[in-house]
Amino acid sequence: xxxxxxxxxxxxxxxxxxxxxxxxxxxxxxxxxxxxxxxxxxxxxxxxxxxxxxxxxxxxxxxxxxxxxxxxxxxxxxxxxxxxxxxxxxxxxxxxxxxxxxxxxxxxxxxxxxxxxxxxxxxxxxxxxxxxxxxxxxxxxxxxxxxxxxxxxxxxxxxxxxxxxxxxxxxxxxxxxxxxxxxxxxxxxxxxxxxxxxxxxxxxxxxxxxxxxxxxxxxxxxxxxxxxxxxxxxxxxxxxxxxxxxxxxxxxxxxxxxxxxxxxxxxxxxxxxxxxxxxxxxxxxxxxxxxxxxxxxxxxxxxxxxxxxx
Length: 310
Known about the structure:
The chain is of the alpha/beta class and 310 residues long. The chain is built from 11 helices and 12 strands.
């Protein structure tokens, strides 16, 4: 039997190996991960969801941190991909920046336009366009703006393509945020408490490694975003939170394990669901809060990645 080849690494002989960091095709692994995740919501879903967004947002620490870290200079132009209702595009417009704000949901763009009209902003230009569209056909071209941003909006099958598209559009800098955990929809502390550890996707690590393989040195910082979930009744809380247990993309478990987790969830809620003293008051999106809340708000940590294009 032939011996395995060996190599000398500064002394003793070691079996030859290929480091995973150089052997792994991170974009191909990303594509495989998307196949087992829940399907990304389509434009129709977000059109309907946009009706729950008001035109007046409360002060938002996430937005403040994103804009602080983005370091957009006075007078620079910005491309905002997946702009939603304009959480970033509106304050950028108010600060005098020209912004091309793209989203595949007309409902979201309509809400953003209402906010822009209310603020008297005329320097933000909405564009109905998706990640998968032919961007040049929509007028989004190489070097079109100084800065390109994508805030919590990258949900594509081909992550490398999305990152390189943003890099191509921006003359100076790109800034994005991606989840550090399995999903912003998943409360990992609850899954752990009911006995179902979540499957962590750590999307930002895929982006970081893909960029590194392209010779791009991204900086990484973190933004904590608090979710103040409220519920009409304890049963409403159970029905909404049980979706995490039933989500095959978030957890790997047998039918028996999921059944036990459902029972554990009822016990957890009995100890962690409390009356909401601010019921009826508007939440961060302007929607009236419901009668019950979790004793400890959920914190979602986002990874802020930025890199200079020149």
